[in-house]
Specification:
Layout: H1 8-16, H2 25-33, H3 37-47, E1 50-51, H4 55-58, E2 66-70, E3 78-82, H5 88-98, E4 103-106, H6 113-118, E5 134-138, E6 155-159, H7 165-178, E7 184-187, H8 194-203, E8 212-220, H9 222-229, E9 236-241, E10 252-253, E11 259-264, H10 268-276, E12 277-278, E13 284-289, H11 295-308, E14 316-321, E15 338-339, H12 341-344, E16 355-359, E17 363-364, H13 368-377, E18 383-386, H14 400-409, E19 415-417, H15 432-435, E20 444-446, H16 457-467, E21 474-476, H17 491-511
Length: 512
């Protein structure tokens, strides 16, 4: 054997590249572990690095110690149960594997509750999973796991299936006590009560080295925010802003926060929070609201973004209106506002933006002049998307010639989602070489709910063939639901756009 193959670190790297074509981890790594003494420990370390289902530990024991039963009518999965108390020898077998586990995921409860509870009472005071660093679990089917000590745990994703918040509070109290080194924490709740938000805000302050916090539906109070702002390692935060933040002269400075995601029923709480914080290192900011914003609230929001961003660091700004239109009167009361250039003017101060995505339940009135003025202030844009989900609902938009100027202004542009104004556009004679464009192979264009007539198709096809970097480039039209608006349900318009796309691809294939 080559001397290099006797070095465990080299073997870990080699075995870690599995699976390769023709290699099955389930069979080849165990085979490697039994091939020779040098391979055993590295192969087992790789094999047990990630535990997808805890029942794999039961299956390593003698068959007399457990039994299985199907969990569904179709018999596509099994649940395992211990038949008796485990012996010292069997515990030793389990511990020989659990010490290797670095990541554990369980979505389906592959062990029954009593068997999971067995892990809570090992015949030793030493942690059963001493080196576990990542845990992703549903808190119902494997809830007892959250009561276990995980001294090395740094990443936790909790999906509480039944969302009993009193029970969940008990799980988290245990985690705060036995897993003090959490750095990345994510909890997926549909909604959270006031008392649970208070509890969470209090207990999250016990973790001193958080890097990322994702608690999208949980409202963090001002004390929790102050605690998080004092963490130099915190780079990502997702939460719901409080509606009752008290005024203060001293801003909360998140010195190293790179990514911030805020979700609220209304836009005003997001604006108020932004007015209280400073983000000198922010690069990505996302805001979601569940109700249609007013003109005034949207204007205050963009002004607050501009004020909270200290320095020229923000690269991505996204805003999404998630309001529900089922109860709205689409004929009379839908879309009372219109997004125009004046609404977007504050974005021009964010000159380092690479990604600008706005999606509001408004009509959009933007033409060549406004979009090109915006682009001239944001020359590094790689993605420009306006109402990709809601559509524009108006006949104004950027003309094909305006789109050419947009590409020339923003030379790095890779994705556009805009309304294309095809009115009167029936001729296009320029050659691709004369345009002076070099769009990336990953270029994508979405024309949203743009209107088109049959007489426009040849010219639009020639235009797309001239700007596209390759055949079968990424293209879409009328792909979103546009919230059920009747004017966006015209199947014939979609057919015409895709006919233009087909003709463009024919030309591109002939050219290449």
């Amino acid at each position: 054997m080559h001397p290099a193959l006797q070095i465990p670190e080299i073997l870990l790297n080699i075995f870690g590249y599995s699976p390769l074509p023709g290699i099955s981890v389930a069979s080849d790594l165990p085979a490697l572990a039994t091939a020779c003494r040098s391979f055993k420990e590295p192969a087992l370390d790789v094999l047990w690095r990630e535990l997808l289902v805890p029942s794999a530990l039961a299956r390593c024991l003698p068959e007399a110690s457990y039994f299985s039963q199907t969990k569904s009518f179709f018999g596509d999965s099994k649940r395992y149960s211990f038949t008796r108390s485990l012996t010292q020898v069997e515990w030793a077998i389990i511990r020989s594997y659990t010490r290797r586990i670095r990541s554990m995921i369980d979505y389906g409860g592959s062990l029954d509750w009593e068997s999971v509870g067995t892990f809570l009472n090992p015949p030793t005071t030493e942690p059963l999973f001493p080196n576990l660093r990542h845990l992703d679990t549903t808190a119902t089917k494997t809830k007892h796991l959250l009561y276990m000590p995980f001294p090395s745990l740094v990443s936790l994703f909790v999906r509480p299936e039944d969302e009993n918040q009193d029970r969940l509070q008990g799980y988290l109290e245990s985690l705060f006590k036995f897993s003090p080194n959490i750095r990345n924490f994510s909890i997926d709740l549909h909604k959270s009560g006031i008392e649970f938000c208070k509890f969470f805000s209090n207990y999250i302050c016990r973790w001193r080295d958080l890097h990322a916090v994702d608690c999208d539906s949980i409202t963090l109070d001002v004390d929790a925010l102050a605690h998080l702002s004092g963490m130099p390692a915190l780079t990502e935060l997702s939460c719901t802003p409080s509606t009752t933040l008290p005024p203060s002269d001293a801003p909360l400075v998140f010195s190293n926060l790179r990514r911030l995601i805020l979700h609220s029923e209304f836009l005003d709480p997001i604006s108020r929070l932004l007015s209280r914080i400073q983000l000198p290192a922010i690069t990505n900011f996302v805001a979601y609201v569940d109700s249609r914003p007013s003109k005034q609230s949207f204007s205050s929001f963009l002004a607050s973004v501009q004020a909270s961003v200290i320095g020229d660091t923000i690269h991505s700004l996204k805003f999404a209106d998630l309001s529900d239109t089922e109860d709205a009167d689409l004929e009379d009361n839908f879309r009372p506002n219109t997004l125009d250039f004046e609404d977007l003017r504050p974005c021009m101060a964010l000159s380092s933006l690479r990604d600008l995505g706005l999606d509001l339940s408004w009509d959009v009135d933007l033409t060549d002049s406004g979009l090109l003025a915006l682009a001239s202030a944001l020359p590094y844009l790689k993605r420009l998307s306006i109402n990709e989900g809601w559509g524009w609902g108006m006949a104004s938009g950027i003309t094909p010639n305006g789109l050419l100027q947009l590409f020339r202004t923003c030379r790095s542009l890779m994705t556009v989602a805009l309304y294309i104004d095809t009115n009167g556009y029936t001729e296009f004679y320029e050659s691709p070489a004369s345009l002076g464009l070099t769009l990336p192979p990953t270029f994508r264009i979405d024309v949203l709910d743009s209107f088109i007539e049959e007489e426009n198709v040849p010219a639009i096809a020639a235009f797309l063939a001239a700007i596209a970097p390759r055949p079968n480039f990424s293209f879409s039209a009328y792909s979103a639901l546009y919230s059920g608006r009747k004017d966006c349900e015209d199947y014939d318009l979609k057919v015409l756009w895709y006919e233009a796309y087909r003709q463009a691809n024919v030309t591109l294939s002939q050219r290449s």
